[in-house]
Amino acid sequence: MNLLPYSKTIYLTTLFLVTAFIWWQLYSAQFLFYDENYRVLISAFFWSVLATIILVILWFNTRALIKQNALAAVLFLLLNSPVTVLLALFYYNDLFGPLKY
Hints:
This protein is mostly helical. Helix content is 79%, strand content 0%. The protein has helices spanning 7-28, 34-61, 63-68, 70-80, 82-90, 92-95.
């Protein structure tokens, strides 16, 4: 079975789900206690790094797919780059409220 016609849909859905997962982790950390919330925040950062690395690997392997969906890739990198997640962690109280201690 040839998945090429579905590759754009799979790619866009995966980008959306990874974005939602990372930001859901950032948001849900405020409801957890001390050790658990920092574990979730660190996990969100590492998922962000992993997603960025995978997107770079995809760039070298299937450049045409990313070029066809350049806006989605740029939005994904703006929302989920490790720098963005670090800034969200730095300004966490302003974005989501205080963490439990």
